[in-house]
TrEMBL record:
It comes from Coniosporium apollinis (strain CBS 100218) (Rock-inhabiting black yeast). One of its GO terms (biological process) is TRAMP-dependent tRNA surveillance pathway. This is Ribosomal RNA-processing protein 41. Component of the RNA exosome complex. Specifically part of the catalytically inactive RNA exosome core complex (Exo-9) which may associate with the catalytic subunits RRP6 and DIS3 in cytoplasmic- and nuclear-specific RNA exosome complex forms. Exo-9 is formed by a hexameric base ring of RNase PH domain-containing subunits and a cap ring consisting of CSL4, RRP4 and RRP40. CDD domains: RNase_PH_RRP41.
Length: 247
């Protein structure tokens, strides 16, 4: 059933009751897996992701010897029950491989890899539920897990999505799309370092008129800054809890 966007400009509300610039509920925890070097659990709406970090560990030996630089490896597994259709995605799934490559590239440039020569840092993400903004949720969950593991980075890497309605009367793009909106609307995923406008990740997988891209990106960047505030609050609350338990 096509998504009816005609009511956006009239009621200024979306199908889930949010306004155009509202984030969905974000819930996150860190240190959820005691056996991992770092771990996190994150919900963005009904999209739910678990991330664990292993390493830095000694890198694999090759015929030419171990690599000089630290390697960042990403593995994503998507549960068959995570979406509306019960479809199991294997390692050869193109969409999964694209997300793994995006995360690997993003965190290779964000982590201070020069501090860990001849080492490998492995991020493993398990997708439990999908309802839009999957790549953004994976980036945010990985950021929290790396912080929990104590791996130094240049700053938080926070991500959010923004879409454009087909309604010509709508002046503003939509922030943080859910699954139904992603199926019907062109959207992009942006990842920002810290609370500035430095874009580290930009993924546009659908066709959209070029004059709409700037507005979509501006809304996504603003959403990333708000996500950073939420993730920072999660990290600070965890730190206070550790101090209180230690006392």
């Amino acid at each position: 059933m096509p998504l009816d966007t005609s009511t956006y400009s009239l009621a200024l509300l979306r199908l889930d009751g949010r306004r155009w610039n509202e984030l969905r509920r974000i819930h996150a925890q860190i240190s959820t897996q005691a056996a991992a070097d770092g771990s996190s659990y994150l919900e963005m709406g009904n999209t739910k992701v678990i991330c664990t970090v292993t390493g830095p560990a000694e890198g694999r030996r090759t015929a030419q010897g171990a690599g000089q630089e630290c390697r960042v490896e990403v593995e994503i597994s998507i549960a068959g029950f995570s979406g509306v259709e019960r479809k199991r995605r294997g390692r050869a799934d193109k969409r999964t491989q694209e997300m793994q490559h995006t995360l690997t590239t993003a965190f290779t440039s964000t982590i201070f890899t020069h501090l860990y020569p001849h080492s490998t840092i492995t991020l493993t993400l398990h997708v439990l539920s999908q309802d839009g903004s999957l790549l953004a949720a994976c980036l945010n969950a990985a950021t929290l897990a790396l912080i929990d593991a104590g791996i130094p980075m240049s700053d938080y890497l926070c991500a959010c999505t923004a879409g454009s309605t087909a309604n010509e009367d709508a002046d503003e793009p939509l922030l943080d799309l859910n699954g139904l909106e992603e199926q019907e609307l062109p959207f992009l995923t942006a990842g920002v370092l810290g609370d500035n406008d430095k874009v580290a990740v930009l993924m546009l997988e659908t066709r959209v008129r070029v004059e709409r891209v700037e507005g979509m990106l501006a809304v996504a960047v603003d959403g990333c800054k708000r996500v950073r505030g939420i993730l920072d609050a999660v990290v600070r609350a965890h730190g206070r809890r550790i101090v209180e338990e230690g006392v």
